[in-house]
Amino acid sequence: MAKTCPITKRTSLVAGGYSNRTRATQFNPTGKVRKQLNFQTKKIYIPELKKHIRLTLSTRAIKTINKNGAYQTLKKAGVI
Length: 80
Hints:
Layout: E1 13-16, H1 20-25, E2 32-35, E3 39-46, E4 51-58, H2 59-68, H3 70-77
Antiparallel strand pairs: 1-2, 3-4
Helix pairs in contact: 2-3
C-alpha cells in the first residue's frame, strides 16, 4: 500500500542535508532521511450513504473532514 493520503494527496518527503554549523566548520554529510506523514486509520460514518468507511488518512485530512463534513470532503476528493 502506498503511503499517500487519498484526500490531501500528500506523500512522504526526503529531508536532511547540513546544519549551518557543519557548513561553517567542515564537510560532514549527514545523509538523507525520509519523513513520513502522520497517518491514522479511521472508521468514518457517512450518514448520507448510511454506511461506514475505513480509511488511512493524514491528520490534516481528519481535521478537514471534521470541519467540512465527511460526505462533502470524500466526494470532492473522489473517494466515494
